Amino acid sequence: MVTHTLLIDDSDIDLFIQRRFLEVFNFSREFTSFKSADDALEWLSNRQENAIPDVIFLDLNMPKTDGFAFLERFSQLPAPISTRPRIVVLTSSNSTADVNRSRSFKNVIQFITKPMKQADIEDLVRKINSQSN
Questions:
Q1: Residue 1 above 90 pLDDT?
Q2: CATH code: domain of residue 20
Q3: Rounded to an integer, what distance in angstroms lies between the CA atom of residue 7 and that of residue 25?
Q4: Which tens digit of pLDDT belongs to each residue from 82-103?
Q5: Which domain holds residue 39?
Q6: 21 φ, ψ to 5°?
Q7: Is cis: bond before 78, omega within 30 of 0?
Q8: How far apart are CA 51 and CA 9, in angstroms?
Q9: Residue 129 CB: number of other CB atoms within 10 A?
Q10: What would the DSSP string read from start to end of 36-55?
Q11: Is 92 within a domain?
Q12: How far apart are CA 68 and CA 61, in angstroms?
């Protein structure tokens, strides 16, 4: 279980489903959600070191600032904000180009095509645990 998870998706329904799914699998103690990448970036830029999320679930297809723009701007935030969180791209896209572009960002540890499944969470937990050891 991680301490704090940030969910970024422009859909209220997707945010609700993602949070409930992660709660059922006891993935995180605390959740914060944003419908806008810009709002999430502003919130992140004001975090103290002890309040930085462990994992960020990020949708790619959002209006105004999409997931790739978020990743670009996120990587420019000061450490440890830009270095500690592990990012999971959670999107309706299954494009190989999107997968490859997402994985070019050092914090992205997994690419999941919606809807999220139990196996996706199990794989993610294994990755997080192996990185922690």
A1: no
A2: 3.40.50.2300
A3: 16
A4: 999 999 999 998 899 999 999 9
A5: 2-116
A6: -60, -45
A7: no
A8: 20
A9: 9
A10: -HHHHHHHHHT--GGG--SE
A11: yes
A12: 9
* pTM over the 0.90 mark: yes
Mean pLDDT value across the chain: 95
Enter the tokens of residue 21. 């799914």
Measured CA to CA in angstroms, residue 127 lies from 78, 79, 86, 103, 110 at distances of 25, 22, 10, 15, 9
> 87 by DSSP, 3-state: which?
strand
Q: What is the DSSP-derived secondary structure letter of residue 12?
A: H
Which residue bears the tokens 């704090």? 4
| Residue 77 lies inside a defined structural domain of this protein | yes
Residue 40 lies in a domain: yes
The pLDDT score that the predictor gives to residue 133 is 61
Q: How far apart are CA 108 and CA 101, in angstroms?
A: 10
Task: Give domain status of residue 126, yes or no.
Answer: no
Both tokens of 81, joined, read 């904000």
| Number of domains into which the chain is organized | 1
